[in-house]
Amino acid sequence: MRLEILTLALIVGACTWAFRFFPTKADLSTIKPDGILARFLASTGPAAIATLFVASVLPMLKADLANAGVPMPLACGTLVVVLTYAALRSVVAATLAGSVAYGLAVWLL
Question: Rounded CA gap, 15 and 18, in Å?
């Protein structure tokens, strides 16, 4: 393993740990619900989900774009996530439904 990759992994790991650990120790009872810190903390969940989605989808898209198409399981899973979330406004239900749709598409196709 190259030293640059190991260094990057350690830095990212330490920052991720700090970002998850320190908010649990902070006294958040004094912040305003509509303040900038509250808005920042509320936006980190969706930002993390979007980042993980892009990181997991990008390799599939790169591989299939060379074959002139978007993989059907990816399209099915993403569509079901969006539709389920639009209908139910539940991240949990949308995630589970998208996973099931992706799995079924892989199995059937």
Answer: 5
Residue 71 CB partners (closer than 8 Å, separation 6+): 60, 61, 64
What span, in angstroms and rounded, lies between the C-alpha atoms of 84 and 96? 10
The pair of structure tokens assigned to 102 is 């992706």
Q: Do 98 and 85 contact (CB within 8 A), yes or no?
A: no
Residues 41 and 23 sit within 8 Å (Cβ to Cβ): yes
Q: Please, are residues 98 and 81 in contact by the beta-carbon 8 Å criterion?
A: yes
Q: What is the pLDDT along the chain (109 residues), one digit of tens a residue?
A: 789 989 999 999 999 898 888 878 878 788 888 888 888 878 887 887 788 888 878 777 776 655 656 688 888 999 999 999 999 988 889 889 999 998 998 888 7
Query: For the chain, how many residues are written?
Result: 109
What's the predicted TM-score (pTM) here? 0.55
